Amino acid sequence: xxxxxxxxxxxxxxxxxxxxxxxEELGPRAKADLCRILSEDPNLLSETDVAxxxxxxxxxxxxxxxxxxxxxxxxxxxxxxGAHPDFKAWLWKTWLMQAKNVWSPGSAAAKLFPEQLVPEKxxxxxxxxxxxxxxxxxxxxxxxxxxxDTYRGRKMLxxxxxxxxxxQTRWLSTALKLLDGLGVDVLPDDFKxxxxxxKAAGFADESSSMAAHNVRVWRDxxxxxxxxxxxxxxxxxxxxxxxxxxxxxxxxxxxxxxxLSSVLLDTPFVLSHNMPExxxxxxxxxxxGDDSDHVLLNDxxxxxxxxxxxxxxxxxxxxxxxxxxxxxxxxxxxCWDALAGADVVITGCSACVTQLxxxxxxxxxxxxxxxxxx
Length: 374
Fold this sequence. Notes:
single chain; alpha/beta; four-stranded parallel sheet
């Protein structure tokens, strides 16, 4: 962090965990103070106590955005997680690093596992796995009326992310179809995971290795724009540092990251007769600046959009979903309270789709907005 916590309390106003539980000891200010105390006396708490306490952070980053002192509480927590790993952190690391081999068959198997036979410690993991594939998918109801020439002939890379590459391949297919319609020349790539989930869990070395690899892929391709369609991946890529040849290259990287929805903002869509009666949009915690996903969808659906979250977190929480699932449940419930009344909930984050699909009320469908496009 670039400064020290001055106990101003701004972070308390935006923390979804504090809002849902009412427990200030779980808020960012308490975590910042804990990190300060442990830096002065590392032996003050036992390994077990520290490992338990660092599990109580969703990693949403909202506190970091409002801190006038530049205190990055999620990064502080990640540092403690790295210094005090436990079984659940190892399980999370394995799940992320073996995504290609585990996610698809794991998701299918998790849906079939009888709930009464699920060991308590594995329950949250199985719920996440079950949510990876969502339900049967959303019925497409949007069709491009006419592709503009804004990006025709441009060379770009597409960073699809682990979920789209290994589980939700329909997202990837639709994204490629849209870019082809725009006349974009999508370059071949060898991207790895963005590494943000590993970084938040305290596995800095593994995350840094992935970042360095992804930057090399971009550099070897000639520094073209990189299109993303997952808010968490986009935020993870934006946070890269220490793997560039110069500050100028790092700034170029930041400027070359484009969300797919921002590329599509000038593209008109036509609604089909089978569109849902009511939709709601969940804004991911990791959306930065203007939310082009929401702008695109609001313009397309207009009065059919009955609501949108702005300050509610889905409760995914990364490794916290394993470390303290009972604390993420009220966060998730507040999110669903804000989305009440919708038949379909759409979002632009793979983690949010996973969590919301796994916890959706009966009769409510959840999916990525790409699923709505023919």
